[in-house]
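name: query_chain
kind: protein
chains: 1
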Amino acid sequence: MMRLPLWILGALLLGGIVHLSTVLAMPEAATQDAYSRLERLSPVNTVVQLPAPSAQNTTMPFMDPAFAVAICRYDLSTGALKLRAPLSQAYTAITFYTRNSVAYYAINDRAAGRRAIELDLMTPEQHAQMPEEGDVTAADRLIIESPTRHGLIVLRALAPEPGLMAMARRALAGAQCRIEPVPAQ
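structure:
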């Protein structure tokens, strides 16, 4: 009498463990993650605009057709990355992802408060090697520490109306990401 409920409970517990472990292992086991898909389209440390999504063809799933999108795949092995992105008239956002698609930082034009978003991206080790500059404050220089040496930066500019898409694409065309070699000590 008591055996059947115990077997059901055991099966549910085992099924839950298998389900949870599968869900947690999927990001590591996926072969067509964002970084891999974009590897074919963009060289490292260069900003590349993605084509506008259509019903038949999208570079990445769930792309919003109201946004112009550009990406920069980065490699911090040889130095820190300097990112500069001019702001569009409507809205501009930048999101940073690790190689395994984990978002670790985001900034938008409202937070930047300038005509462009300028920042330095580096590993914690590179940040520790930077010389101290007494006259430079955190408001003058935005430094972001990347948890990994390889990753992805996604830049988005909103086109509130379809006729303004060219304006949003022009704003992203002015974006730059380039490596600054680590200074010798």
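note: The mean pLDDT is 86.
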